[in-house]
Amino acid sequence: MYSPFKFRPKLFDCLSGYSMKTFGADLSAGVTVGVIALPMAMAFAIGSGVTPAAGIITAVVAGFLTSFLGGSRVAIGGPTGAFVAIVAGIVATHGVQGLLICTMMAGVMLLLMGLIRLGVLIRFMPSPLVKGFTTGIAVIILCGQLKDLLGINAETAGSANVILAVSELVPLLDQASIPTFIVGILCVAGILCWPKKLGKRVPSSIMVMLLATVASMLLASYAGIELETIGSRFGGIPRSVPAPSLPVFDLATFQTLLAPAMTIALLGAIESLLCAAAADAMIDDQHNPDQELMAQGIANIITPLFGGIPATGAIARTAANIRNGGRTPIAGMIHAIVLLLIMLLAAPLARYIPLAVLSAVLIVVGINMGDWKEFTYLRRYPRSDVTVFLVTFLLTIIFGLTQAVTVGMFAACILFIRRMSEQSRVWVRLLHHRSIGNGGSGFLPEEGEEGEYHQGRPDGANGQDDTGERNDDLLLINLTGAMFFGAAQKLRRIMRYSKQPPKVVVLQMSTVISLDATAITTLDDIIGKFRKKGVEVILVGLHSQPLSALTRSGVLRDLVPGNIVRDMDAARRRADDILENRERDEA
Q1: Which range scores top for mean pLDDT: 291-305, 370-384, 387-401?
Q2: What is the DSSP pairing of strand 77-78 with strand 425-431?
Q3: What residue ranges in 487-572 does DSSP mark as E strands?
Q4: pTM of the prediction?
Q5: Confidence of residue 158 (pLDDT cuts 50, 70, 90)
Q6: Which pairs with CB-CB distance under 8 Å and at least 24 residues apart come from 433-442?
Q7: Half-sphere exposure at residue 131, Cβ-oriented, CA atoms within 13 angstroms
């Protein structure tokens, strides 16, 4: 357990016993990951609607800070495909300045999440929700690359609605460039089919990018075919890091960008912790989730000052780091330095890179990112999980990630509450003092069902006199599961159980694991109503949480001493004493 507000980067733990051998492994891994990250950083930036330089700046600044300050040994930070859809929407609506402000707001939120120790809670996000919006993002990425893949050089609205975005391209198909399309498809095939053994030494994306750049130059020189490149659209990449500057900020901007900033923060938290958890499994380590969130928060606050975009943990680059020998955060810091050197020394060459190859990189990212097998597994899952997955997926591709996460979380919570309430049951049994075991028993019915309870015997005769009113001495109520606001209605129906109240009510609570405020209030009301009717209430088997909650709330204050017992044998003896005393008093 970590003490509140403890700030200790994983790097500090790794420096103890650090050797030249370890540094050699980190150096090799860092250089390799830096080279791999170059095309991805540019591709993610272009797909997000900003310049490729912004992607490289993000990989440099955020990549260095998340490794230097993070809670994982080997996780690599930077721009990722998860943010492409939402960043593109923010840029289209609020411009680049709006994106910078939104990223800083998300960074503050991530920092606060880490400070108040929400790292563990983020990992409890429902899997169908995460897979739903991840697969939806993959579809958006794939559809968003059609324009560059087809070589269509025309402005579109960049709608977050996949259907509208694709429909915008249909009238522009006559502008498609066949050479660009062929180059793009060949690049996709090259990245996907690159030999895995060779890929450990020569990254597929780098080699394909180099080959495509050479092909583009040859086509321009000998065939007169001009492919759109980074230089033709963006004018190349600057050879220097921009000076930090603070974007203009006001209250109206804050209110407008609050929702997308929360989405970036939530998505960034999920992605970074999933990345760190995946890294732990690969190297048998344990990351500090709160420290990781704080590092991601700081990175997303500082990166926009240099014109960067949102960053989070990058699973593919983290895996490459581990496969190439990286074992400490120094490898991640080296990867950022390598990217910076490439930017400073080789920026002029980047102007010749065709956009089709970067589009191909994003297409492969989208293919690998989507949980496509989930669609074949849907029939195996509970309906509630299927509902959350499909709702989140459809909302993501139709309305965007902000709405999808909001509605998906709401749906997941509602369905979880329903599922938990179904596990909470109220079982009742009517007993005569002189004929114990002859009463009817069963579960209280669900709302809208016939009868006051499901009778244990089909004739329902036991426990009733000729007038049809129950005259039983003792009512045994067995509560199971978590008694919370979702199950409170089942408790309230106890009072409608019989017109003729029993003399003793036994509440068996040995299988009740927890009580919330609604359940406590309901039990207090039930016990009070029974006591007004002269009915003695006995509580059995209270666990620590229910006992503590009922004690603090004052519910137990009004119970007769001795009516809180540990087991059913003690409850039976107590009930016998109460009933025998009443019989003597009545006699």
Answers
A1: 291-305
A2: unpaired
A3: 504-515, 536-540, 564-565
A4: 0.74
A5: low
A6: 433/473, 433/474, 433/503, 433/576, 433/579, 433/583, 438/462, 438/463, 439/463, 439/472, 441/476
A7: 16
